[in-house]
Amino acid sequence: MSDSAPKLERYVPKPGEPALPPQLAEFQNKTPEEVLAELNRMPFFMNSLPGDGNDDSDINFDALEALKAMNYEGDPTEMLTNFKNQGNEQFKLRNYKDARKFYEDGLQIDAEAYDPEKDNKAACELELKNYRKCINDCKKSLKIDSKNAKAYYRMGKAFFLLKKYDEANGSISFGLLIDKDNKSLLQLLKSVNTKEEEILADEMKKLAIEKEKQRKIDLLEACLDIRMIENINSKEKNEFFELSKIHLEEKDVVDSQLIMPCLVLYPTIDELDFVAEVGELSTGQDIIDQLTQRPQEFYLENPQYMCLDPNNNGKKLHIYMETKEGGLVKINKKWTINQIFQNETPKIPMLDHSLRIYLAPKDDTEWIKKWDKNECLEKRVL
Fold first, then answer.
1. Mean pLDDT across the stretch 257-276?
2. What is the C-alpha to C-alpha distance for residues 235 and 194, in angstroms, rounded to an integer?
3. Which long-range contacts (CB under 8 A, 24 or more apart) does 210-217 make?
4. Which segments constitute the Cns1/TTC4 wheel domain (predicted)?
């Protein structure tokens, strides 16, 4: 007797019989679109569910519910297998959300016997970037099977993506105790080690930068002490005026010229200027010359700056600076900045690690009369 399956005969209608088999007779004379529409009314062929805008009043809802209930037919083992198989199919298609739903349905059937790792639920959570859920699933799986290398791998991968490298290393180490040649675990270990090396290198770089910054600050403070320059900070200190803005003309050469920022105030017109670098060997006149050497267009657009007396190199200007006691003192234009700071009486401090000068016309002294020593001191951090 032959084991081969019997050959199916083609349907040939006899005289008086329909041109199509009886079960397909109702589709005679219908277009392909109409046939598909009819099939979609049958629960086993549906590609859309009721409620999505394709409702028909005569759809067999009982049959549809029966179709859904098929997932729950049989004993718990059969149901678990059913959900697992459907979940695995969706997982292969990379439909991770759908796959996870089937695995979760299986979990509801028998939570004790359900292994989320073997059924790929942990893998779904990993793909969906639900790293903490993945870790929890792996832990549940390891309670069932403590030698599950995949669980250690996925838990390690989740920890790695959460940037918890110590925990990732721990998971990988346990996994390699079970399977020392596991390629996935070894590759993940390499990734973790590489990341840790990058972090260490970055930390060392930052530490070196901070160390060098502190070294410069210590050096500059020493430079100010040697020159007997005292600094006083304002309560509303601008972050630009930091010690780090001061530098030596020759790097690390303590007795080379000290370069500092300079804030220039014009009290009679309520304006100010900022000079980024002024050397300690510069004079007050040098600063004035630098400020007055502006294009003629500047003075046409800003006539208030004509008080600088640009046509006469500031000969009609006086320079004033604040004293340590909060008063004002007129400065000789020929003095160098170094001489000004080393003058003992009155003592003139550096303010906010910068040189601060006031420029005003000789014939306008009204602002000086209004100067309040106590108000000046109130603005400082003593």
1. 94
2. 47
3. 213/244, 216/244, 217/243, 217/244
4. 252-371
- Phi, psi values for residue 303, rounded to 5°: -60, -20
Neighbours of 246 (CB within 10 A): 25
The pLDDT assigned to 280 comes to: 96
Region of poorest pLDDT, from 64-68, 77-81, 99-103: 64-68
Rounded to an integer, what distance in angstroms lies between the CA atom of residue 82 and that of residue 59?
26
**Can you tell me whether residue 276 is helix, strand or coil?**
strand
Per-residue pLDDT tens digits for 155-203: 999 999 999 999 999 999 999 999 999 999 999 999 999 999 999 999 9
Residue linked to tokens 């009721």: 50
Q: Which two tokens stand for residue 305?
A: 């700056």
List, in sequence order, every residue forming a beta bridge with 360; answer none if it has no partner. Answer: 318
Closest CA to 90 of 144, 129, 127, 53: 127
Chain segment 288-344, per-residue pLDDT in tens: 999 998 999 999 999 999 988 888 888 999 999 999 999 999 999 999 999 999 998
State the Cα–Cα distance between residues 360 and 371, nearest whole angstrom.
14
**Alpha carbon separation from 207 to 195, 204, 213, 289, 378 (Å, rounded):** 18, 5, 10, 43, 38
Enclosing H/E stretch for 328: strand 328-331
pLDDT category of residue 13 using cuts at 50, 70 and 90:
low
Domains of the chain, earliest start first: 27-69 (no CATH), 115-226 (1.25.40.10), 235-381 (3.10.20.90)
Contact 247, 340 (CB under 8 A): no
Rounded to whole angstroms, the Cα distance separating 19 from 25 reads 8
Q: What is the pLDDT of residues 171-182, one digit of tens each?
A: 999 999 999 999
Report the percent of the chain where pLDDT is more than 90. Answer: 62
